[in-house]
Structures are given as structure tokens and as C-alpha cells.
Amino acid sequence: MSFRTYRKASSLVDYSSNTRECDRVQPILWKIYQQTWFFRTCTQALPDQFTILTACNPRSAITCDSDNEGRQQRLCEQLTAAGYKTESLLAGDRLKHYTEASVIADCQRDVAMDVCIEYQQNAYFWVNDDQLWLMPGLLKQQPTQFALFSQRIIYDKNRP
Question: What's the pTM value of the predicted model, to 2 decimals?
């Protein structure tokens, strides 16, 4: 699915009601999220279990870059202050038509879920022994193992 499909679907999610349209769109977003690739600049080994979170575009509402940068910075500072190791990366489609700033953190799933909800995110990613899981936040979906994380990484040496 394309970036255009994602934007159209995400703009139709109405969290304030249980409309049929919202129920119809959530599975579309869930499938789109399963097509995510991760762009790392660091080649250091990662722990066996970690999460990938973002604070950008809460509730799938397109937010200006400065607001997203501020939210993402607060997320990273919050995780670091709590004692978690973090690494910034981008997450998006394979051709980078759409990406969001994200962060890898070595926190547990329950912490990741709380942070995901706090930052009003539809979902987050969980990695356990290289198994990549899509985990629900605001969306009402079932956790889905969909790929090997190691096969969804692109090392992006051109990004600082």
C-alpha cells in the first residue's frame, strides 16, 4: 500500500466514536504498519528484546515538523531519564516516501504500551529474539508477528 493510501486511511480514523468507517479503516492501517522499514545509522548490536516508539503525529493527525520534533525529543528524554538505553532511527516505507522519527528503547512491553498511549499512538513495535511484532496502542487490533526485524533494517549512512 502506498503513502497516499496511508494518509487517506489515517485521516478517517475517528477515535471519539465507534463509527463503521473507523472500524473499517483500522484494519487497513494495521496492514500498512506491517509494511514498515527501519532506517538505522548505528550498526551496534541491539538487545534481544526492545521496543520501537514514536511521538509523531498523535492519533494519525498530521502535525507540523516543529511539534513532532518537540514531542519526539520529550519522548527520548523521558525514556533516558527512566534509565532506558535509546537509539534514534526513522521508520517508514521502504523508499522513504514517508518516515517518522522513532526511538528504540530497551524497555518492557508494559512500559512501551503506557508510553504509546501517553503519546496517543495507534501502535508500537516490539522485537523479541528478532521477531518483529506490531502491538496495538489506540487501535483495537491483535498483536501481530509479521517479520524478522533483521530483514527490515536499512542502514542509512547518509543521515546523521
Answer: 0.88
